[in-house]
Structure formats: structure tokens, C-alpha cells
Amino acid sequence: MVKINGENISAAGLTISAYLDKSDYGTSRIAVERNGEIVPKALYATTVLEDGDELEIVQFVGGG
To answer: pLDDT tens-digit profile of 37-60?
Structure first.
């Protein structure tokens, strides 16, 4: 299990990119933190989620 934004999700074995695609996140305006470290977008396709990982996904929205 991987804790994503505080919720336990069965995502171990997926790359960050695969999880984001499956969850309908647009990658242009998000930031992903894995176990307390920001993951560069260039590494989303090669970073494999493991049991016990904790992710925070922040989606930026415009407005004023």
C-alpha cells in the first residue's frame, strides 16, 4: 500500500507517471513529493512506487 494524500491506495509497483495517468491528474500543473522529497518531473516515468511510500500530490490552480 502507498499512502497518497493521506489515503492508503494499492499503487505499489506503478511508476508515478502510471499512477497519475490512471488517476486523471494532468502533469503540467502538479508537484509530487515522495517520502518528504520533491520528485522532478523528469523522473516520474522511472520512479516506481513501493509499499510504505508516502506521496503528496499538489495540483496548482489559477485564479485571483
So the answer is: 999 999 999 999 999 999 999 988
30 Cβ neighbours under 8 A, 6+ residues apart: 20, 57, 58, 59, 60
Q: Which CA distances in Å does 19 have to 10, 36, 62, 63, 64?
A: 10, 18, 24, 27, 30
Rounded to two decimals, what is the model's pTM? 0.89
Backbone angles phi, psi at 31, to 5 degrees: -130, 140
d(CA 19, CA 7): 14
d(CA 41, CA 39): 6
CA proximity to 32, closest of 58, 2, 14: 58
The neighbour count for residue 49, using CB atoms within 10 Å, is: 20
